[in-house]
Every structure is written in structure tokens, then in C-alpha cells.
Amino acid sequence: MRWIERLPIARERPVIGMVATLAIVAAAWLLRTVADPLLPPGFPYVTFFPAVIITSFLFGVRLGSLSALLCGLVAWYFFIPPARGFVLTQGAGFALAFYVLVVATDLALVHWMQVANSRLARERETNRILANTREMLFRELQHRVSNNLQVAAGLLVMQKRQLNDVDAKAALDEAGTRLALIGRISRQIYDPSGTAQPLVPFLDELCRSVVDASGRCDVTLSVSGDDRIRLQPDAAVPTALIVAEAVANAIEHGLANERAGLIGVEVWRDPTGALEITIRDDGHGLPVDFEMDAGTSLGLRIATTLARGQSGRFHIADHDGTLATLALPAHLVATEE
Predict the structure, then answer these.
(1) Radius of gyration over every alpha carbon of the chain, rounded to an integer in angstroms
(2) What is the pLDDT at residue 288?
(3) Which domain-ending residue is among 78, 96, 128?
(4) Do both 200 and 300 map to the same domain?
(5) Is-above-0.85 flag for pTM?
(6) 182 is a domain residue
(7) CA nearest to 280, candidates 314, 250, 309, 241
(8) Can you tell me where the transmembrane regions are (predicted)?
(9) What total number of domains does the chain contain?
(10) Amino acid 249: pLDDT
(11) CA 207 to CA 256: how far, in whole Å?
(12) pLDDT tens, position by position, 9-53
């Protein structure tokens, strides 16, 4: 009910407020005159109390006070015996005192309500400005961090050109790629409000960027799962790096030698609430002598370490191709109802 915060209205146009006040008083007078034959004695203010409340509510306490004064005089003159005169009898004095008490209470309550609404509106506007400023600063910081990571990745690429050792070049190239990936992740996963982010759309964009970066046009990617599943911000980068590593590994090894194929990423929660992300390809499968714990691949070691750092596990196995599974505990995910 934000419209209440705009009251009183016509503050910048006092003439309009004055005319409206006189109209409300006249309407109350006319209505009381019409109803007079139908009312028992002793109700001189029955239409004037609402007029005072409406006027003060719409136009403020000043015009409300004017309305109270005019309504009181009209009621005294026309409807408090002896009628057609300002005669101050004991009964008239008691009726007027009652009227003053009621309208003073009404005016005070309306005034306090409008002051509170005005203060609330100012605080809401201040909070809106602060929220906008916070979001702007957050995005600026996020942008700078991402840019710095991209610069660091570029420096590694430049440093690679100074080396002759093939393994050293490959190591720097891999490190630069991961830094660039972290930079891209940081742009899209964090929200200024700190809320958990939808996981399936995020992984879909991430995995497609990995496929695009590989230069392969013969790889079909599908990402599916419950769109309500959200990822806590602290788990974003590690989870993204693990999934990206698994997709890149599927392209490099499972679909090696330009073998066309499919990569499917599926996100779901088991009955205990734990999260499982599977990355499946229909490629060559694992080597016969492959052992997860004895693997020499830096990427797999990083993925395993990151998963353990989140109290989860990462595993690769043969399954009509290769099946990589990332399991994370329930406290790292949330489901939007």
C-alpha cells in the first residue's frame, strides 16, 4: 500500500486542498440535513466526524483542523438545541466538549500515522539508494576481480612463449585456462544479494563455453535436471571447476581423435537431499589400466581435491563411454519451492 505514503495529497496546491475541504464540509452538512428527520435526538455530529477524518487523512492536519472547526460550528448552529443559533447551554457545552475530544484524538492519530508513513518512505528510499550503491560496488568489484584473473591468465600465456620445455608450456597453458575459467565463473555465479543461484542454467552456460573453447563442432551437449535446485555461493567456483574439468576431459580423451559424440550433464538430488552431478560421454571409455587414485592427470587431481574440500567426492568410471560423478552434501544446495 505504497499510496498511503503519498498522503497528504495536494501539499503543493493549497487552493485545491481548501476547495476540497469546503466541499467535504458542505457534503457532510447536506447529508446531515437530509438524515435529520430519520435520526433520533442527540446525534449532531454523525456525518461530521467522518468528514473531519477524511479531510485530515487526505489533506493533512491543517486542513483537517479547519474542517473540524467548520463542522463543529455548523453542527452547533443547526443541530444542537436550541437550533439556528450559537447558544451555549449546558447540553450544548457538553456536546461541544465531546466533539472537541473526539476530533482532537482523530487529528492526532492521523497526524502520527502520516508522520510514520513519511519516515517509512524516506527510510525506504534511503535503503533503495544504499542497495543500488551496494549492487553497483559489488558488480564493479566482481568485474575488477574477473579482469585481474583474465590478466593473470594472459600473463601466463605470454610467459609460455619464453619457454622451450614442452611440459612447462603445457602446464602454463593449463593454468592460464583455469584462471580464465574462474574469471568467467565469477562474472555469472555471484549475486549481490548473496542468494543461492539456479544450478542447471549456470552449468548449461558453463559447459557450452567449455565446448566452444575446445573448437569442436561435432560434440552435442545436453544439460538437464531440476531447475529448482540452487547452488550456495561458496560452493560455486569449486563445483564449476570440477564440472568444467570433467567436460574438458570428456572432449580431450573420451571423444579424442575428432570422434563425434554426446556429452550429457544431469543434476539431481537423492532421497537424503545430497546433490549429484553426472557427466556422461559416449566416447572411447577409460584406458584398461586406469586407476582413479593413481591417476597422473593434474585436472583429475584438482577435481578430486576440490570435491573433498567440500566434503564431497568425485569419481570416474566406465559406463558405455565414461561416467564422471560429483556428489556434494545436502547443506551446499537448496531447492526453491
Answers:
(1) 37
(2) 77
(3) 128
(4) yes
(5) no
(6) no
(7) 250
(8) 12-31, 51-79, 91-113
(9) 2
(10) 87
(11) 17
(12) 877 788 999 999 999 999 999 999 999 988 888 889 999 999 999
Cis, bond preceding 8 (omega within 30 deg of 0): yes
All cell numbers assigned to 298: 593434474
Q: Is 70 exceeded by the pLDDT of residue 194?
A: no
Residue 142 lies in a domain: no
What range does the domain containing 282 cover?
196-337
Asked if the structure places residue 164 within a domain, the reply is: no
Closest-CA residue to 312 (of 208, 232, 210, 253):
232
- Whether residues 122 and 226 fall in one domain: no
- In a domain, residue 143? The reply is no
Choosing from 81, 106, 128, the residue where a domain stops is 128
Q: Does residue 222 sit in the same domain as residue 329?
A: yes
Residues 332 and 240 in one domain: yes
